Amino acid sequence: MDVFARLESEVRGYCRGWPTVFTTARGSRLTDENGRTFLDFFAGAGTLNYGHNDPALKQRLLDYLAADNIVHSLDMHTAAKRRFLERFDELVLKPRGLDYKVQFPGPAGNHSVEAALKLARKYTGRETVVSFTNAFHGMTLGALAVTGNSMKRTGAGVPLGHGVAMPYDNYLDGRTPDFLLFETMLDDSGSGLDKPAAVIVETVQGEGGINVASPEWLRGLADLCRRHGILLIVDDVQMGCGRTGPFFSFEEAGITPDIVCLSKSLSGYGLPFAVTLMRRDLDVWEPGEHNGTFRGFNPAFVTAVGALEDHWTGEGLEKQTLKKGQQIKQALDEIALEHAGAVADVRGRGLVWGMETRDPETAARICAEAFRRGLLMETSGPNDEVVKMLPPLTTTSEELTEGLELLGESVAAVRTAVPA
């Protein structure tokens, strides 16, 4: 462990909560170099929706590499890219009536967000982008400008401009009528709010504390944007690829965003891959106007096609995800009832859930106790007060039961150690 402390930057984070050296992984479990196995309720922050080292996806990848197929290609045409575009259109876009163009902006979610913000400003000729309280969209400067967390924003080291934050759904426990402030400011020439190029929103705020927007609120937001000529960007980087049930998290609300950001589990295997989807008429880029060295990572095209074909040719995965979500909710409600002095709220959708504790130290201690028991979880929220659960969608019901029992034991241990 000395080499990490000696050579790796102090910016490292997750390893501080999980002080061990991991070596192998399969499905919903990781093993460290001492042979100890951990149940994964983190899934690479939502990057491993189909679990670790899925055997079918791994075989596709091995076969592709063994045949000396193209790995790096910038934005050149390749057979692997063609296959991905064909299958993504056939299995994802057309069944949902979506007529999007696909941009490959770079390997990570923040690249997708940066491309979306840049495109919205180019298309509209306007500069301001509206985001929401407790939003998280990435760590690059443009994405940070529409992120709410003050610690992350301060890390930019420069002023973050051209972004305005509005209250997210239920930000004030229902005391602020939906969109009243936003629309009033839009209509008031003295409000100081320039007409935005776009609004960017997460349907479920992951890093912000598992805040779930209602379908009604999302429909209201989409309607407001349409009436005022503002582009609607949905950041589905963490909540897409089935995390909330359907492939896109906005499907439940019945809305069609103008631009969609997608990454994390898109490759299906944990390989870097991101796309920015845009309404066809929004594709006003000049050739090479927005590019990047690693925007055509062919191994990710290969595993992405495998994930689509193996998991999205029917409704099985969506139904199982929603069913498992109910299993988690029931268990969390029972934990919250038993430990009401420590747990303030339970919320989530599909297989993303948060258990809000009454103080941040409690959430951190619960995750530490869980690690000692062989369960990986992390905290989220503006003060890290929420215990966050993102198990792989392929986690079995039995594994969920095992993990939830470990969570209950961890909460009880914290409560015993620090009486209310």
Automatic annotation (TrEMBL):
Q: Which cofactor does it need?
A: pyridoxal 5'-phosphate
* GO terms for biological process, alphabetical: ectoine biosynthetic process
Q: Which keywords, in A-to-Z order, does the entry hold? A: Aminotransferase, Pyridoxal phosphate, Transferase
What family is reported?
Answer: Belongs to the class-III pyridoxal-phosphate-dependent aminotransferase family.
Family matches, as Gene3D superfamilies? Aspartate Aminotransferase, domain 1, Type I PLP-dependent aspartate aminotransferase-like (Major domain)
Cross-referenced PANTHER family: DIAMINOBUTYRATE--2-OXOGLUTARATE AMINOTRANSFERASE, DIAMINOBUTYRATE--2-OXOGLUTARATE TRANSAMINASE
**Do the record's keywords include Nucleus?**
no
> CDD domains given for it?
OAT_like
Indicate whether DNA-binding appears among the record's keywords.
Answer: no
GO function terms (MF aspect): diaminobutyrate-2-oxoglutarate transaminase activity; diaminobutyrate-pyruvate transaminase activity; pyridoxal phosphate binding
Q: In which pathway does it act?
A: Amine and polyamine biosynthesis; ectoine biosynthesis; L-ectoine from L-aspartate 4-semialdehyde: step 1/3
Domain of life per record: Bacteria
Question: What name does UniProt use for this protein?
Answer: Diaminobutyrate--2-oxoglutarate transaminase
Q: What class of enzyme is it?
A: transferase
The UniProt entry, under Pfam families, shows:
Aminotran_3
Q: What Enzyme Commission number does this protein have?
A: 2.6.1.76
Q: Which organism does this sequence originate in? A: Actinomadura logoneensis
